[in-house]
Specification:
four-stranded mixed beta sheet, seven-stranded mixed beta sheet, 2 domains, binds pyridoxal-5'-phosphate, about 375 residues
């Protein structure tokens, strides 16, 4: 049977997501015996805080029961933390799920979704899966070009993703530009601020999107527990938006979209979010150290406000990403983003991991 002929025709555009190479897969493929470090998926190199792991262990006693539908207690606690109404919070199985629900709930087949490019790989994936139109607007000098995005909006534009800071470049757009963008487009366009790396940002002119939500009802803010809270593996993220928009998201979600362990972990994470300062400071100082070294080695490295860096080399192909893997160091090739075959994105690890990455890179470049 030719299932490709049975498939919905719009799915021909879908390119399945390729995750960062798992450690065990690399070990098997290349027979690597020593320690492998994975700096490919912008994960946190540290375990979640002990209190979070304890909350997960305690919740194990309840996993014969379905989770709370609608993540009632977690959304209540999030609303208290953010000074919003509970109805303005929507919790998802990672912020990824919320991106998908937003497109499913609001974008009709003849309408389009605008996103910057290169940016988070889930945007094209979800748009192609949904079979709706897309408008890709190139970055300018590795930064979102909000002016070009504003000019590219057309009558059929329903939703715009502003990845801030942007993955894979780590760059951000300031509040003034964001406000000018919002004022320059129709108010029936839903503008999604994807702030997955929010907690790492130190730039003073970074938008206060929660404040903007009071003024612009068409904003959705996405945050996640995957990065700073070290919970990539349990899947929890949330949206803050107008309560009416949130009601519509509830209409398109699965009844038990956020599992028990994720709800328990995220609630504990919220209670201890003030304890992460040292880890954030370490990330940010390690980030500047690695950026300096990469620049010294001849790479172009955009200024990053996140837990990763983009490195774009000049000169001949040296098969950098592949040769790093031979040394047991996994970074993410940025070639699929069209940033050059040799470019890569590297997540910030522990200081020891970062030392090993820099040492490995020097080794690769010197041969
Ligand atoms: C920009 C951006 N948004 C969202 C996510 C997904 O986060 P989650 O794990 O909450 O689905 C990521 C993860 O890498 C990301 O880079």
């Amino acid at each position: 049977m030719d299932f490709k002929k049975l498939m919905q025709p719009h799915l021909k555009n879908v390119r399945p997501y390729v995750p960062g190479k798992p450690i065990e897969e690399l070990r098997r493929e290349r027979n690597i015996e020593g320690e492998i470090i994975k700096l490919a998926s912008n994960e946190n190199p540290y375990q979640p805080l002990d209190e979070i792991k304890r909350a997960i262990s305690e919740e194990l006693d309840n996993i014969n029961r379905y989770p709370n539908s609608g993540s009632h207690y977690l959304s209540l606690e999030l609303s208290e933390k953010h000074g919003l109404e509970q109805g303005q919070i929507f919790v998802g199985n990672g912020s990824n799920e919320i991106i998908e629900l937003l497109v499913r709930a609001f974008v009709k087949p003849d309408e389009n979704v605008m996103y910057p490019y290169p940016s988070f790989i889930a945007y094209p994936l979800i748009v192609h899966q949904a079979g709706v139109g897309e408008l890709k607007v190139p970055l300018s000098d590795y930064i979102l070009d909000l002016e070009a995005m504003r000019s590219a909006v057309n009558q059929k534009t329903k939703m715009v993703f502003i990845c801030n800071p942007n993955n894979p470049t780590g760059t951000y757009v300031p509040e003034g530009d964001v406000v000018a963008f919002l004022m320059g487009i129709r108010e029936d366009i839903i503008v999604v601020f994807d702030e997955a790396y929010y907690e790492y940002v130190t730039a003073e002119d970074y938008p206060d999107s929660k404040k903007l939500l009071e003024r612009f009802k068409n904003i959705v803010i996405l945050r996640t527990f995957s990065k700073v809270h070290s919970l990539s593996g349990v899947r929890a993220g949330y949206a803050m938006a107008d309560a009416e928009l949130v009601t519509i998201l509830h209409m398109v979600r699965q009844p038990f979209n956020v599992n028990r362990l994720a709800q328990a972990a995220a609630r504990a994470a919220l209670r201890h979010s003030d304890d992460l300062g040292t880890r954030i400071d370490e990330n940010n100082s390690e980030r500047s150290r690695i950026a300096d070294d990469l620049r010294e080695l001849g790479f172009t490295v955009p200024d990053s406000q996140t837990n990763f860096l983009l490195a774009v080399p000049e000169g001949p192909d040296r098969n950098i990403v592949d040769r790093l893997m031979d040394l047991g160091i996994i970074v993410r090739s940025a070639a699929p983003w069209g940033l050059g075959v040799e470019s890569f994105r590297v997540s910030i690890g522990t200081p020891a991991e970062n030392d090993r990455f820099l040492e490995g890179l020097r080794d690769v470049l010197s041969r």
